[in-house]
């Protein structure tokens, strides 16, 4: 029998002529896949493939990883340092020495004029850990500003804050292997198949074997929700109410684990008193999940021999973000689901090295989960770095979102932005623009020179990215993996580590503080500083990490000396009674009263605006917007809109519409779909000058993370579709 293709040219996959494969961990999401990049005989990167014996991805990669080698030659890369007097002026290329002298002088000038904390430094979750550590040492030990934070405040700070409040320390207790042991999985506000495709694959494979029920809580019918046993379309921002109601049912029906609670927690009485108020009938009216479903979910979760919860931005990016995390931890603790196989509360982190920055950047304190507020921690680190402990602030300074407000108010006059792009990613772009415009000096250090934020900079420093650099990253399950330099940064661009070390020289003229040049040596220094801490990595080195395709912390020098192999598969923390990080070893059960303080739809702005991500794109698209195979799937901004709402408003598929909020407006193409309810639109935030012109981003009181997912808009039709299409092409930018 003949089939069509046999009569035409057969499909041929071009031979990429790979001469050598080089190892790296993926530089996009926090899954932590091991990649090999193929180089041809000229040393040009031409292919990427998954590493078969890596425990995380077992040979697989997603759509972003598979084209990651194309980054090295993508458009818009910065090739030389650049300077200008005012952000209106033309850029002038300059030498590294000139730029770095100027950076040093401007930092000191602004600090001398307006005080040490008037110069802010904001970094990222997308550099290598040795870079974070070096920048932390430079900032805390030499520059001396307390307004130093990372973009992780937009992303993981609610998880960090919630873990600290519940367990006494940051640090996700579970691992991917838990999927293989669990009897029930609740996913709160997480679209795993699109945002962490390989974790999804691990989860799905485990589920197909054991058949555990998957319960998804998300107002949108995500790809994960489509695969769920139960999908709870929660009213945005009310997850805490559902959690309280589930606890109400669990206590009322005696489904809690009293032995675990007695042995490992404090505060159960206050929690019981609070959740008493959240009977399912009352709660249903607030959170939009009917009373029977609340009971069924509570029972299914509590009765499972081991039950697991994961969550991502649907929880963290809320005015109740930190409370949502504590609520998840409360549910886990009262049912004894922490530290046992398949029983865990696992925050799915976001950026490739969001964990690395939490552990080592000193943004929220001092290295290895130490606190500025604890005198012994200040002493330990000051001695280790050879700096004066009195130079350290006695408490943490502003978080990233507060720094922009201080810029707007004129308190902060200078800014060094490293690997983050606030003009695209912060809520309420108009306010961020005002804040950026007022700076006396702004330096942007980015691997691309065409970012929205660089438009407001006086200095641009071209950095290497991902596998143009040398170091490590930590993934969602605390696995530290190796990134090896596959190729050199283009033009005059330099690895971020090189830049930090050159800046350090300028602040460290007497050579008092040691700044090792090689990432491998820095890693060993970090190992020393981690001894005896929760995240003890003293048994690891770069070679061991590569051999094992990543090792989960902790792995101590003593374990290694005694011949104990690095942990394989799944490693958990808090596995034994009384091992939480509070002084008495107990976790805290914390009551969570609910106050509804979100912007909610009303007559003028009747539709929820929900924002988030697509599988093919990465954040502001500085990377994926330039890779054809990623960009082609969604090259322009669009909204998911319910077909009934579209019909009511007279909007056809493919028409451009105008979205208006109290902050501003944006144009996007309408894609009618039943993925969203009639009172909600979903707008991916990847596009230039779009979603964040609209968002309000009220801040969580504990974590200062913005509520990106809850704002109100109205939708207007556009008569001149040609003009709208033009505008949309401009937003496309790349
Ligand atoms: N392809 C791709 N992958 C990525 C990224 C990327 O840009 N592109 N970014 C990485 C980063 S930094 C992060 S932080 C993660 C984010 O990963 P996710 O959090 O999984 O992704 P989002 O699309 O931001 O939001 C997830 C879901 O939250 C839901 N949600 C909105 N409001 C609520 C609510 O009130 N309650 C609940 N329960 N859910 C709600 C949304 O409908 C959405 O489906 O992805 C990482 N992975
Ligand atoms: N509306 C809305 N807004 C959101 C979110 C949302 O869900 N909705 N999510 C928020 C979340 S969770 C996050 S994490 C933030 C992300 O917000 P951003 O931090 O602004 O994210 P990116 O666009 O990835 O910016 C990273 C920048 O670093 C550069 N870069 C990449 N690698 C390197 C490197 O190795 N060195 C240097 N020097 N530069 C590098 C990139 O070119 C890019 O310009 O967005 C937040 N904003
Ligand atoms: S799942 Fe994440 S880490 Fe793995 S290849 Fe995709 S983007 Fe990279
Ligand atoms: Mo994130």
Summarize the structure.
With 734 residues, this protein is α/β, with parallel strands linked by helices. The protein contains 27 helices and 26 strands.
What are the bound molecules? ligand MGD, iron/sulfur cluster, molybdenum atom
Task: Using the CA coordinates, give the radius of gyration.
Answer: 25 Å
How many distinct beta strands?
26
CATH topology of the largest domain, which one? Rossmann fold
Provide structural commentary.
By secondary structure, the protein is an alpha/beta fold. Helix content is 33%, strand content 16%. The chain contains 27 helices and 26 strands. The strands form 6 sheets. The chain has a 7-stranded mixed beta sheet, sandwiched between helices. Strands 21-25-22-24-23-26 form a 6-stranded mixed barrel. Strand 9, helix 7 and strand 10 form a beta-alpha-beta unit. The longest helix has 19 residues. It starts with a helix and ends with a helix. The relative contact order is 0.15. The site of one ligand MGD has 32 residues, from helix 5, helix 13 and strand 21. One of its GO terms (cellular component) is oxidoreductase complex. GO terms for molecular function: 4 iron, 4 sulfur cluster binding; metal ion binding; molybdopterin cofactor binding; oxidoreductase activity. Keywords: 4Fe-4S, Iron, Iron-sulfur, Metal-binding, Molybdenum. It holds the Pfam family Molybdopterin.
Sequence-ordered SSE layout with sheet pairings:
Elements: H1 4-7, E1 20-25, E2 34-39, E3 45-50, E4 82-83, E5 92-93, H2 96-114, E6 119-123, H3 129-143, E7 148-150, H4 157-167, E8 184-188, H5 192-195, H6 197-210, E9 214-217, H7 223-226, E10 230-232, H8 239-252, H9 258-264, E11 265-266, H10 268-275, H11 280-287, H12 291-303, E12 307-311, H13 313-316, H14 321-334, E13 344-347, H15 354-360, H16 375-385, H17 400-408, E14 414-418, H18 422-425, H19 429-437, E15 441-446, E16 459-462, E17 471-474, E18 479-483, H20 496-507, H21 519-530, H22 542-547, E19 551-552, H23 557-561, E20 587-588, E21 607-612, H24 628-631, E22 638-641, H25 643-649, E23 656-660, E24 665-672, E25 680-684, H26 691-694, E26 711-717, H27 721-732
Parallel strand pairs: 6-7, 6-14, 8-9, 8-12, 9-10, 11-20, 12-13, 14-15, 15-16, 21-25, 22-24
Antiparallel strand pairs: 1-2, 2-3, 4-5, 4-16, 17-18, 18-19, 21-26, 22-25, 23-24, 23-26
Helix pairs in contact: 2-20, 3-20, 3-21, 4-14, 8-11, 8-12, 8-14, 11-12, 17-19
The structure holds ligand MGD (2 copies), iron/sulfur cluster and molybdenum atom.
Molybdenum atom is lined by residues 155, 350-351.
């Amino acid at each position: 029998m003949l089939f069509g293709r046999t009569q035409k040219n057969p499909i041929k996959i071009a031979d990429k002529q790979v001469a050598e494969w080089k190892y790296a961990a993926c530089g996009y999401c926090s899954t932590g896949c091991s990649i090999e990049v193929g180089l041809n005989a000229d040393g040009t990167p031409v292919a990427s493939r998954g590493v078969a014996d890596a425990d995380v991805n077992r040979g697989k990669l997603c759509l972003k990883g598979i084209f990651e080698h194309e980054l090295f030659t993508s458009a818009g890369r910065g090739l030389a340092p650049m300077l200008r007097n005012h952000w209106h002026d033309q850029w002038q290329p300059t030498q590294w020495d000139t730029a770095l002298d100027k950076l040093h002088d401007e930092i000191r000038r602004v600090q001398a004029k307006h005080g040490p904390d008037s110069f802010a430094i904001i970094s990222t979750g997308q550099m290598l850990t040795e870079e974070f550590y070096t920048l932390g040492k430079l900032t805390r030990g030499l520059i001396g500003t307390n307004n130093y934070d990372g973009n992780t405040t937009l992303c993981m700070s609610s998880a960090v804050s919630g873990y600290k409040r519940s367990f006494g320390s940051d640090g996700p207790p579970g691992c991917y292997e838990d999927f293989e042991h669990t009897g029930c999985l609740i996913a709160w506000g997480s679209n795993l198949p699109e945002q962490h495709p390989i974790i999804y694959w691990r989860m799905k494979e485990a589920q197909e074997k054991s058949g555990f029920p998957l319960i998804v809580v998300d107002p949108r019918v995500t790809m994960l929700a489509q695969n769920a046993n139960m999908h709870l379309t929660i009213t945005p921002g009310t997850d805490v109410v559902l959690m309280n109601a589930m606890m109400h049912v669990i206590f009322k029906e005696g489904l809690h684990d009293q032995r675990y609670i007695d042995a490992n927690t404090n505060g159960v009485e206050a929690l019981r008193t609070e959740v008493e108020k959240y009977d399912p009938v009352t709660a249903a009216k607030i959170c939009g999940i009917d009373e029977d479903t609340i009971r069924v979910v509570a029972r299914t979760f509590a009765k499972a021999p081991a039950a697991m919860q994961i969550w991502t931005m649907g929880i963290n990016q809320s005015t109740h973000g930190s409370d949502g995390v504590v609520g998840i931890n409360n549910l886990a603790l009262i049912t004894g689901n922490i530290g046992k196989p398949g029983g865990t509360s696992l925050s799915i982190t976001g950026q490739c090295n969001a964990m690395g920055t939490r552990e080592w950047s000193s943004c929220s304190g001092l290295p290895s989960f130490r606190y500025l507020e604890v005198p012994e921690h200040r002493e330990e680190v000051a001695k280790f770095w050879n700096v004066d402990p009195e130079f350290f602030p006695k408490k943490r300074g502003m978080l990233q979102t507060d720094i922009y407000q201080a810029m707007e108010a004129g308190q902060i006059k200078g800014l060094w932005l490293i690997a983050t792009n606030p003009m695209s990613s912060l809520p309420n772009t108009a306010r961020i623009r005002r804040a950026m415009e007022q700076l006396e000096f702004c330096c942007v250090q980015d691997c691309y020179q065409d970012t929205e934020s660089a438009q407001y900079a006086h200095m641009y420093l071209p950095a290497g990215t991902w596998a143009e650099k040398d170091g490590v990253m930590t993934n969602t399950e605390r696995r530290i993996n190796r990134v090896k330099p596959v190729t050199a940064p283009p033009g005059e661009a330099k690895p971020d580590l090189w830049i930090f070390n050159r800046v350090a020289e300028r602040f460290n003229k007497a050579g008092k503080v040691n700044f090792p040049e090689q990432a491998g040596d820095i890693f060993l220094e970090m190992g020393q500083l981690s001894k005896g801490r929760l995240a003890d990595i003293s048994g690891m080195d770069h070679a061991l990490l590569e051999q094992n395709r990543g090792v989960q912390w902790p792995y101590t020098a003593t374990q290694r000396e005694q011949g104990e192999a690095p942990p394989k598969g799944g490693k958990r923390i808090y596995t034994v009674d009384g091992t939480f990080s509070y002084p008495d070893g107990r976790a805290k059960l914390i009551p969570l009263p609910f106050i509804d303080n979100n912007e909610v739809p009303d007559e003028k702005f009747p539709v929820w605006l929900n924002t988030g991500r697509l599988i093919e794109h990465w954040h502001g698209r500085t990377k994926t917007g330039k890779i054809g195979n990623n960009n082609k799937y969604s090259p322009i901004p669009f909204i998911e809109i319910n077909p009934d709402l579209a019909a009511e408003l007279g909007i056809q598929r493919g028409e451009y519409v105008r979205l208006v909020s109290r902050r501003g407006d944006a144009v996007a193409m309408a894609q009618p779909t039943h993925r969203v309810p009639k009172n909600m639109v979903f707008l991916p935030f990847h596009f230039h000058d779009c979603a964040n012109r609209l968002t309000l981003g009220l801040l969580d009181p504990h974590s200062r993370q913005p509520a990106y997912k809850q704002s109100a808009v109205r939708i207007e039709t556009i008569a001149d579709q040609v003009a709208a299409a033009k505008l949309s092409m401009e937003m496309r930018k790349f």
